[in-house]
Amino acid sequence: MKVMRETIVSTARELFRSRGYAGASMNDLADAVGLKKSSLYVRFPNKEALVPAVLDLTLQETFGQRDSASGQWDDEFVEVIEFVATTLTDRGRCVGLHLAYGTSDETPIAKHAVRAFFQAHRDHLSSILSRAMPVDVARDIATDTLARLEGATAFVAIFGEKDAMKRAVRLSIEEAKNAAAAKSLSSR
Q1: Hey, what's the torsion of the CAs at 69, 71, 76, 77, to 10 degrees?
Q2: Where along the chain do its domains lie?
Q3: Where does the HTH tetR-type domain lie (predicted)?
Q4: Residue 45 per-residue DSSP state
């Protein structure tokens, strides 16, 4: 049976999302995709080697299909954070955050991949926002937006409170629009 790399990576992502880094095993992954463990190790030498692939797939799904130069900054910002919020709400967990808590100095490849994952999110949001406000303000709002969305994910996962995510999105949009309006007023 030929198992595609994408199937392995997407299945690993779901295992990491549901069980965390420590709780997901290569044996579980091999079983889930219908491979012998030795065949899985040919493709990925260890569990840590899966982390960059899992997070790259997630980034590609989040930002890969979007044309960052098209349309208005605010429409694009709303589209991206609503996509992230919907994904987090539907899945009930953020794979990046789950991996952030599961990786350490003993797993430097995974730890670096998690850092790069969140940096890419912040950089992408900052690049959208900086079209309407100073770069330092854009970076702060991007950081705050990610913190709100990740925090709201906890309430979705623990209590099933989807309204927390809706508020996080609304507050982030308001903050961004207020910062853009303030810049516009100061430019006059």
Answers
A1: 90
A2: 48-186
A3: 2-62
A4: S
